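User: Can you help me understand a structure? I only have the sequence.
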Amino acid sequence: MKTYVALLRAINIGARNKIPMAGLKALFADLGHEDVATYVQSGNVVFRSRGGTESRVAAEINCPFIVVVPGKLPGGDVSRAEVVAESVRVLSELCDIAARHDVALAFEFLGQTDCSVQTLDLADEIVRATNCKNLGVVIDSFHFYAGNSTFAM
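Assistant: Let's start by predicting it. Here is the structure, written out as tokens:
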């Protein structure tokens, strides 16, 4: 089993999107996760799981999308075409799973040099090649500038 951290954004801020942490913890436990713990009223949840239930959790708490990030560059020489092909394969599979729960995916490129998808143009290429209606790109200003991205695609 792996340990996961769910960082649920924009909950328990002001009067909107209130989710009691006891209820959130119970939801994760009911979905079969183990060692579930929440952190204050932040919406952060740490749990152990075999995986595969992320989109079901999102649907249960009325979360319209899940942010997914690329992995690190694998060792050895890896071409852009290989990164695109593997990313398309994985994202297509994740989109199929998320679609069963009426959840969309937001693909966030990471500007770090050790990341497999560092720029907006590469993330856009991957999302277009995936051709899934429930997949889009997240533009985080930190990663945009760290990866030297531009809007000229």
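Now, to help you interpret it: The mean pLDDT is 85. The first strand starts at residue 2 and ends at 7. Let me know which part you'd like to focus on.
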